[in-house]
Amino acid sequence: MKKRQRKIRLIRAGIQLLFFIFAPALFSTAFAGVKSIFQAIAAHQTISWNSFLDVTAVLLVVTCLFGRHFCGYACAFGSLGDALYELTVFIRQKVFHKKGRHGYSEKAIRILQKVKYIWLLVLLVSILTGWYSKLQGMSPWDVFSMLTAGRLPGAAYKVGIVLLLLIMIGMCTQERFFCQFLCPMGAIFAIMPIAPSALFNRDRSTCPAKCGACKKRCPAHLDIDGDTLLSGECICCHACQGICPKKNIRIGIPKMKDESSF
């Protein structure tokens, strides 16, 4: 099982590194597409297709068909969160001799997961009212995009720099902190109609009694099978598959029980 976990982690980390190096701005580009739509609506103009919307449309279609693999594998901001969290886990284990993975309670996570929907609504309303233009320099992902492009943000971005630092601190305290609680694109992805063939399901029939390893390991604290209300929260990190001792977790439509057995 540990060998399988290590293999999944290494493959995922390799893909994340490639996207981080070659396409770090995908997240901000995708939201720029959403922003352009609402800016056109606010200006009472016809929505014109642009390169930002190309990226947004592709990511939305891919998410609907295959799940949130962009979040789990391609988003540079998410990859940064994974790196900071894993570094914190390593320090806690090696320096402070604390075992296991740290994070918030399940109740707190359930509540905080709703914050990103409120934040998305605030951003969209601010765009429609013209208030968004006054937020220049306050965007943490604009600062992140500058840094990944090799440019240092100026004094005009000091608020954005502070917010980015605070988010990075949060990333050290909870796995996928930004993605679960604050990401506006994550909120959009989570409400998209995910194809049944893209959802994670578990065959409970051979699960060890009181195991729950998949739920304990899931950064979104999902009940892997049948949790339809929260299925959009899954970031397709495949951690549940890697930790399952019986290899009971699969992607796709649940297998139908053999009616002849009744």
UniProtKB/TrEMBL annotation:
Bilayer-spanning residue ranges: 48-67, 117-135, 155-174, 181-200
PROSITE patterns in the cross-refs: 4FE4S_FER_1, 4FE4S_FER_2
Pfam family, any one: Fer4_5
Protein name: 4Fe-4S binding protein
Keywords attached to this entry: 4Fe-4S, Electron transport, Iron, Iron-sulfur, Membrane, Metal-binding, Transmembrane, Transmembrane helix, Transport
Positions of the 4Fe-4S ferredoxin-type domain: 196-227
Domain of life from the UniProt record: Bacteria
InterPro entries, per database record: 4Fe4S_Fe-S-bd (IPR017896), 4Fe4S_Fe_S_CS (IPR017900), Electron_Trans/Redox (IPR051684)
Annotated organism of origin: Blautia faecis
